Amino acid sequence: MTHRLPELWQESPLAFWLVVACLAYYAWMAARLTAIDIRSHLLPNRIVLPSYWTAVPLSLAAALGGGAFDGAAVLRVLGGGVVLWAVYFVLRVVYPAGMGFGDVKLAGVLGLYLGYLSWEHLLWGTAAAFLLGGLYGVVLIVLRRGTGKTAIPFGPFMLVGAALALLLPA
């Protein structure tokens, strides 16, 4: 998202400010959820669910901020949220002990943000989350601070993975 800011400033100042608002909300949400998830292994609905009401209109408005209707951008934003939510939901159903439902709900929000950019950003943000979470798990095992069954808060890795993807160029 950040790499699009200079071009958006030139093309559509409204879209620029909507993307800045998206990023500001994302930073606030990510900081709050990371702190809470690390401390309590929970992603509270009082933060995650209102994030949909913020991410949907801001990301859709940013996608359409150029003035012309862009059906592909709308499909990517909404489709990104639905696809990522569905992927995490399937993981939750297949192995409930490995994924909390808070992670599933957060995945939908992150899919909206990543879908704004591209399907590739959605893929890279998701892959980065699992890579970072896996590396953290390996480090815990190597340092003998955990085992393969140790529960880790996955929300921070999801948020960092998505943030890294938001920084990637197109």
Structure notes:
The chain is an all-alpha fold. The chain has one domain (2-167). Helices cover 78% and strands 0% of the residues. The protein contains 7 helices and no strands. The protein has helices at residues 5-11, 13-40, 45-63, 71-94, 101-117, 119-142, 155-167. α5 crosses α6 (119-142), α5 runs parallel beside α7 and α6 (119-142) crosses α7 (155-167). The N and C termini lie close together (9 Å). The mean pLDDT is 90.
Concise account of the structure shown:
By secondary structure, the protein is mainly α. It has helices at residues 5-11, 13-40, 45-63, 71-94, 101-117, 119-142, 155-167. It has one domain.
- The amount of beta strand, in percent, is under 5%
Largest sheet: none
What count of domains describes the coordinates? 1
How many β strands by DSSP? 0
Kindly state the percentage of residues in helix.
over 70%
User: What global shape is seen?
Assistant: elongated
Taking all residues together, what is the mean pLDDT? 90
Which value, in Å, is the CA radius of gyration?
16 Å
Number of helices: 7
Structural class: mainly alpha
Poorly predicted runs of 5 or more residues: none
| Element pattern in H and E | HHHHHHH
- Alpha-carbon distance between the termini? 9 Å
